[in-house]
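Sample 3 of the quickstart, ligand copper (II) ion:
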Amino acid sequence: MTPITRRQALKLGMLAGGSLILPIAFQGRSYAGDAGSPKVTPFTLPFRVPPVLKPVRSDSTTDYYEITMKKASVEILPKLKTEVWAYNGITPGPTIKQNKDRRSVVRFINNSVGTPTSVHLHGMASLPEYDGYAEDLTNPGQYKDYIYPNNRAATLWYHDHAIHKTARNVYMGLAGMYLVQDQEELNLPLPKGDYDVPIVIQDKQFGASGNLIFDDQGEDSQFGDVILVNGVPWPKMQVANRKYRFRILNGSVSRSYELALSTGEPLIVIGTDAGLMSAPAPVKSFRIGMAERYEAVIDFSKYKVGTKITLKNLQPDNNDNYDGTENVMQFEVIRSESDPSSIPSKLRLVQPIAASSAVRTREFRYERSNGLWVINGKTWDNQRFDASPQLGDVEIWKIYNNAGGWFHPIHIHLIDMQILDRNGNAPFAYEKGWKDVFYVGANESVRVIGKFGPNTGTYMTHCHNTVHEDHDMMNQFKVGAASVNLAAKAPAKSLPAPAL
Ligand SMILES: [Cu+2]
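Result:
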């Protein structure tokens, strides 16, 4: 039998959950050439978190931030230089931390990044003209001031959303965390401060000189053989023997992960995409598709000082000897510390939306058809609306993925929704919260429910495998009256910019 490449497997539809479902003899890495990326010994590089961005200035209602998108040369693999396209020249970009109901104005400057950009703050109910509409572009030499209301406490992220360029732009580094907190949450005894840790997981492939290789394998998927956490390959985090809260984002282009601890101890999931759940859900593992966020507490108090615990990915895609995508990062317990934190049994009131309150149900089929990624048979068209709910309407959207070979994480802009059921069964324990990305696995259908608001206007829906999104698995809906000419409402302006 002739061995088949990953690319052929993709064409044949034999990929599931980012994993090749082939007889073991057929498996192998065909990306990054067959040589793979330059080798890095896992768990040797120190863990770090992106810096928190300080506002340029603040007034009684608003904090003003400035971020410049540029090309930069950074060290990701030891002793090699990698060109990235990055917010303020670092990837992930700086973290913005904001209090609920204070407003942010973020000036995104397209300086030397060399490509048109559009910034989407994923999870924010922004007005349409500040939502990173794919065709609302900021060209090199321009800037745009984005206004964010911060009306809910959650783990969000900002990333590029430029039409047909999203996958490459995000892959090259245009992604960062954005955290909104509120007093209700801060009053809970959950781990705080240095014990509340953002984790951005991304897979990349590198050439021999350290250059990033973007290869979407014929508009299918971009996979890497190096797992970065906050921009560091398989880092090691030194921890105290106490509880930590992790805000985990899958910032990859095409890879999903099933996260678990090497010790078999539970991950205690406390939050979903759009904030805390009603109650903690301890699970042995959970899967996280692209753009999903899960917040999990890990309790290191049960381990002796000196213990090493690996955060594993139970969906690795290679079976050779290289210690690769089955590992994410490692924790090493290095000191004893008292732990004032605890996990309350009630975290936040998440009122379930009754299916009976929906005024209509819509169906969306995410498919591969004639070599194209389509929704209900159609590709992106900026003049077509595939749903037009009125402000305040509650709707059920049934999302289908009838293909056996791949999954789609579906992102609906503007609103938070709840999963009613998955293949007619209850959602997983860890996804019973507010969400804006829905993992629709091979041969799955998921029913989600949500209330359209608080804004009217034009918003996008798309697969968050950003290669699929770019080619052209994206559509739009309008809430109430809407315009597609969003660029006219808050246009990008030419540099130089006046003071914020
Ligand atoms: Cu997809």
